[in-house]
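To: structure subgroup
Subject: Chain for Friday's discussion

All,

I'm putting the inputs and outputs inline so they're searchable in the archive.
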Amino acid sequence: MKLAEICGRDMRIVGDAQTEITNVAYDSRKVCKGALFFCISGYKTDGHKYAQAAVDKGAVALMVTRPLDIDVTQVVVDDARVAMAHISRAFYGNPDEELAMIGITGTKGKTTTTYMIKSVMESAGKKIGLIGTIINMIGVKELHTDRTTPESPDLFALLRQMADEGCDAVVMEVSSHSLFLGRVAGIIYDVGVFSNLSRDHLDFHETFENYMAAKKLLFQISKRAAVNADDAAASFMMDGINIDWLTYGIKEKADVYAKNIEITPKGVSFDMCGNRGMLPLNLNIPGIFSVYNALAAASACMLLGVGPETIKTGLEAMPCVAGRFEVLDTGNRPFTIILDYAHTPDSLENTLLTVKGFVRGRVITVFGCGGDRDRGKRPMMGEIAGRLSTFTVITSDNPRTENPFSIIEEIEEGIKKTDCEYTCIENRRDAIRYAIQNANSDDIIVLAGKGHETYQEINGVKYPFDEKIVVEELLNENTKS
């Protein structure tokens, strides 16, 4: 493909515009002969520093924000990340145009909602691609994922693969980072979905207002959208954007709403109502958040023309999603262990409120907070755990480069405002062991924060740590003792 064919009119080509491009790359280690190398100025390093290394490995062109003294064709752009997305999209033949694109943004619920939409669309006879936090999928085939929304060259390569393998639609989590950084630039979503908004990623966005504004960008590139009417940010998301909106909710007046909600330890049932009538639903995932996720998925599918009975079939076929209020196998032990990704104040509160709704014994919460991230949420989460738990074990999450004991001390500031009994055990395996050894009949242990993750990052190194495996090992250890 000729360089001129994949560059926009606002991109200045210095050199041979007819240079043949055989691949694109933003990591100099992945450059091969015939590549266009994107020089991206990141938060830790400047890609321009690796331009010569990329050329030495076979790159025949560079995309830069400033001309470099290197004898190779260069594409000079103003916004490197947006330009990288547009060039990547063109290089892979605009694959999004061959697919129905569904994007979901919000603080929590994105992952489960993508799985619900996938299940419904498959019930409608469609082959679906899924892009998200836990895994990427093409139909039933699973693919590795490194981040919620891939960098644009990886994203468009994946979309091309999905289109080539016969997918009819793609449902994807669209993170605030990806929207702000332009990773999805060029895509027009057939349906955008807003789940909710609460404190998260302020280490990156700095203010809650910036975080909200980043989320809203999805609806500027959507043809129609579904929005959670119960969320305080709903009106902000909809303001000034002239597209077809479908609202959903429980508390506020909405186009699609739930009533007669019944939550049990095994799931939730409710009646979904709207202008299409009433549809009774029985889901396998407990909690009020499951109602919201189902309403979001149903609304998105309605906007794509899916009928109510197909929606019912797809939603009721949904199993638990890994690390999302996942009940672990404890054999015949008299207590329950629930694994949940809750890593924000709002998500931790929702999870613990759900557990308190059906627990017969005590609520034992094991959690920590990530290092090198928003410090302000640590005492908030400590107070929430103290208010909604009978006993709390404060431990490490992913301390990354921070001192884990310093993180624990900041969490303690919040829990000390409550009368909850607690202990601090920095080693996460030991913390889980303590909770198991001290659990009584009918108690529920909530392991919050890591969910689907299979590692723990300490001092910049990722060590294997899959809590499902850890729990199994500790239960067997306890049996032998």
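Points worth raising on Friday:
Residues 3-91 form a domain with the Udp-n-acetylmuramoylalanyl-d-glutamate--2,6- Diaminopimelate Ligase; Chain: A, domain 1 fold (CATH 3.40.1390.10).
The CA atoms of residues 116 and 315 lie 6 Å apart.

D.
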